[in-house]
Amino acid sequence: MGYCFMDIKKIKSLNVMAAKYKHNYREITVPNAVPELSGMNRELVPLIGKDGNPVDYNEAFKQKIESLEYYKDHKLRSNAVLAYEIVTTFSHEDAGKVDVEKWQEDNVKWLKDTFNLTPENGNCVLSVMYHGDEYGNVHCHSLVVPVNEEGRICASRFTDGAAALRRLQDSYAKAMQEHGLKRGIERSSAKHQDIKKFYTKLNQTMDIPRPERGESANSFRERILSLIQEERAASLREMLNKETKMRQELDEQNERAKKAAMNIVSSQRAEFKEEEVKLRRKNQELSDQVGKLEKKYVEMDKLCGEMNTKYLKLEEKSKKTLQDLHKVERLKEIVEENTYRNQVMSYMKDEMPEFAEKMDQDYEAAKQMYESRDVTLDR
Fold this sequence. Notes:
- By secondary structure, the protein is α+β, with helices and mostly antiparallel strands.
- The protein is built from nine helices and six strands.
- A hairpin with a 7-residue loop joins strand 4 and strand 5.
- The radius of gyration is 56 Å and the shape is rod-shaped.
């Protein structure tokens, strides 16, 4: 699987914007562009003014600002980011594997889906130019005005900080997946080779042959440049691609090591999580046991209260029973005294009948007197 690349450059002045237009629309000589391949270039989003005629970047930007409601009574900040130049491409070795026309369509779709936030703001992707005239390096240059939901120029809405830029890179990579392209490794040490830097390095590493007899300086220069590009470009590009590939492999190894470390950490976290679950379960079991013991304590406390009540009742009953026993003892004494009296009276009746009769009469009299006074015996 190859790699897709997306680079965003901020444009902060109209002069820089004008220079970008001249380069992208080939109004100046581009050293690494092959004139014979200029027919491969294609304007995917045309630069058309409000009158229907072609315009340049500066005029398209001016008309875009005039179309925004906010800038009818507001001015642009002096330090504002006016636009983005967004360059999209993919790894050179995948040039024959990618459906370029479909890739172009998906690039335009991604740009519009990403930067056209509301219908009221209109189209913020002012231009998309496809370049196929640079050998082995097909790519798109896009001019985008960063307009937020409120209709104001606001670059921070899209590129405020590393996290926002990573989100854009992730979003672009997702849109390119169906072409068999993937995102470059995040924070990779391998960098996409800039074409101008490539040819600068190329020229610095070449040994220039001597001119032939009678050859003019211009002819010699053209011959040397042609020779350099024909004989050495491929070998140097191969060397640079190998270097890039080695860096990518190193980054992939680092990524695998990072993932392995993360897997170990995740495994340890899972173990800690499992131990935590066990501890929580044990804690819940102990909590349940405490709850049961507390419930048992309440039941026992209630039972103790009931038993204490019963004890008090039994104590009261025991006191009453004791009192009854005292009464029984008294009755026993009375019975015994009465028995003794009866025995004495029987003896007296046998020995002294007259005296015994007199005692019976006295007793009867005393009894009648007692009963007439309504005296109740202590039972």
